[in-house]
Amino acid sequence: MAEVDPFNDEIVRYVIKRHKYDPETKHFRWFYEIAYDNKREYERKFDELGDELEARKLSAQAHFKEEVSGQRLEVGYFQNSQTRRRDQQEQGAYREVNWRNRIVFFFQNRNTRWRFRFRRR
């Protein structure tokens, strides 16, 4: 019943993430902030951070894109995601993109839209 490491894949944990500005990349992105092994503590902290963010937004100290989110991460969450990504790459799920592929994809999408449009009428 304490704060734990969000990246510890050996336990089930409740993680709070914040969508905020990253000065290194100059973009907004999600940061894992806090993780708890107890759902009650997680919900209490989540409510506190949500109220704090809402107060900052009302006083114009926070950017309108900032968000607070939370989720339950199972054992092996990060390891499984790396394995899935590696399997997709081995199966050829990702294609090399060049201008020819983009043109073909564009015309396929256009034809699909027209086909559905004519079917509905």
Structure, explained:
- By secondary structure, the protein is α+β, with helices and mostly antiparallel strands.
- It has helices spanning 39-58, 77-91, 99-120; strands at residues 3-4, 13-22, 27-36, 67-73.
- The longest helix has 22 residues, at 99-120.
- It is flat, with a radius of gyration of 21 Å.
Task: Tell me briefly what this model is.
This protein is of the alpha+beta class. The chain is 47% helix and 24% strand. It contains 3 helices and 4 strands, in the order βββαβαα.
Indicate the structural class. Answer: alpha+beta
Distance between the termini: 59 Å
- Identify the overall geometry: flat
Q: Helical stretch count?
A: 3
Topology:
Layout: E1 3-4, E2 13-22, E3 27-36, H1 39-58, E4 67-73, H2 77-91, H3 99-120
Antiparallel strand pairs: 1-3, 2-3, 2-4
Name some characteristics of this structure:
single chain, four-stranded antiparallel β-sheet, 47% helix, 3 helices, flat, alpha+beta, 121 residues
